[in-house]
Amino acid sequence: MAVLNLFCGPPGSGKTTLARRLEADGHGLRISTDDWQDDLGLDMADAAVHERLQQRLYRHALALLEHDVDVILEDGLWMQEERTMVFADARARGARIHWHVFEVPEPELWRRLEQRSARGEQGAASVSRRDLARILTLFEPPTAEERASVDECTVHQADTAHVVE
Questions:
Q1: At a CB cut-off of 8 Å and minimum separation 6, what does 125 contact?
Q2: Count of structural domains within the chain
Q3: For an engineered disulfide with 13, which of 1, 35, 102, 131 has Cβ 3.0 to 4.6 Å away?
Q4: What is the CATH number for 160?
């Protein structure tokens, strides 16, 4: 049974760092819209391009699950409606879901984003303080029911993680 590793968190919460580690440890094939957009030389600030590419890569992830390939889908899943759809799509393909939820306070998010920007990391979209504030108003924190609906949920708080099942 394939495993779909999913992430929930705003920029700077640690999704990419964990996704890369999971892939290096053999937990699946990592799919990152930001990396693809950057590798293809597409404007990282072009939201329409990002959305189209994200949808295409999502369909690819679902096809991989159908072929029993573990997938690490590196999207933030900020909205409950989106998470509900992704969970249903994974279940329809017989996949197990391991959900990584990131709970990092705003000051720490901003500190990490500033560091990432200073390093000029490949594939990292630039996020201003204003962008982060807007994102946090859009972000819908996971509910207890959502956490209970997946096979495994790991909550990451700054530098710690604990499993909630």
A1: 11, 34, 44, 45
A2: 1
A3: 102
A4: 3.40.50.300
